[in-house]
């Protein structure tokens, strides 16, 4: 995985899944986009998300300190001339907490998991153990308490002939009232050239200074 961290290169992603638990309606979602690598981390991403029953698609662009979002609904709230709404950066654009493209995260999964055949692995990792090894999760989420840390994240992964993830699926369910998530991410075009610049400042509404 570390060999993929070449500036100006990336990988195409497609993710789909749903939420579940004691919530009024199940949320079904689908997104596609790109990750751009730097020398040590994912430096940018772009995704286009569709959710049901919500109708508006959302485009997100994570670069630098911000995640920029736009959609028909967002556009209606922006001043004239603005197209993007800037929010504090989310480091993991996936809908599950396992950012499998992180070398430390992938290593922890493979260490604790089992190899089922030449191209399939599966396992379970506690949310607290995932938090300890995942830089993006520590950046995006607060430190879990004892109950949260004990939640199981069940996963399975298929790899390519080169040993890179081709599809990764994870299921998170804390058994309480908060929605769980069951998702799969497909990876294509590892190593493709990709550069995702931030939108022009003049087209962005930034958060108000506090």
Q: Can you walk me through this structure?
A:
With 210 residues, the chain is mostly beta strands. It has a single domain (2-205), classed as outer membrane lipoprotein receptor (LolB), chain A (Clam). Helix content is 15%, strand content 44%. It is built from five helices and twelve strands. A twelve-stranded mixed beta sheet has the order 7-8-9-10-11-1-2-3-4-5-6-12. Strand 3 (42-52) and strand 4 form a beta hairpin. The longest helix is centred in the middle third of the chain and has 10 residues, at 103-112. The chain is globular, with a radius of gyration of 18 Å. The mean pLDDT is 91.
Strand content: 35-45%
Major beta sheet, strand line-up: 7-8-9-10-11-1-2-3-4-5-6-12
What level of helicity do the residues show?
Answer: 10-25%
What's the total helix number? 5
User: Helix and strand string, N-terminal first?
Assistant: EEEEEHEHEEHHHEEEE
Q: Briefly, what CATH class?
A: Mainly Beta
Distance between the termini: 40 Å
Number of strands: 12
Question: In the CATH scheme, what's the topology name?
Answer: outer membrane lipoprotein receptor (LolB), chain A
Low-confidence blocks of residues:
none
Instruction: Describe the main β-sheet briefly.
Output: 12 strands, mixed
The second-level CATH architecture is: Clam
Structural class assignment: mainly beta
How many structural domains can be distinguished in the coordinates? 1
Mean pLDDT: 91
Taking all Cα atoms into account, the compactness measure Rg is 18 Å
Shape: globular
């Amino acid at each position: 995985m570390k060999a993929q961290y070449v500036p100006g290169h990336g990988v195409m992603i497609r993710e789909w899944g749903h939420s579940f638990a004691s919530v009024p309606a199940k949320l079904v979602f689908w997104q596609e986009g790109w990750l751009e690598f730097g020398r040590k981390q994912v430096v940018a991403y772009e995704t286009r998300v569709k959710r049901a029953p919500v109708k508006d698609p959302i485009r997100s662009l994570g670069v630098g300190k911000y995640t920029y979002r736009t959609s028909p609904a967002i556009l209606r709230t922006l001043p004239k001339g603005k197209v993007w709404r800037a929010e504090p950066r989310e480091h993991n654009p996936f809908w599950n907490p396992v950012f499998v493209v992180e070398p430390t995260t992938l290593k922890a999964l493979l260490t604790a998991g089992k190899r089922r055949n030449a191209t399939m692995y599966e396992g379970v990792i506690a949310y607290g153990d995932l938090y300890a090894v995942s830089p993006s999760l520590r950046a995006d989420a607060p430190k879990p308490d004892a109950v949260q840390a004990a939640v199981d994240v069940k996963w399975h992964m298929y790899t390519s002939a080169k040993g890179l993830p081709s599809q990764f699926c994870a299921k998170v369910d804390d058994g309480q009232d908060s929605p769980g998530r069951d998702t799969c991410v497909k990876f294509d075009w590892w190593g493709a050239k990709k550069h995702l610049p931030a939108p022009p400042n003049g087209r962005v509404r930034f958060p108000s200074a506090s």
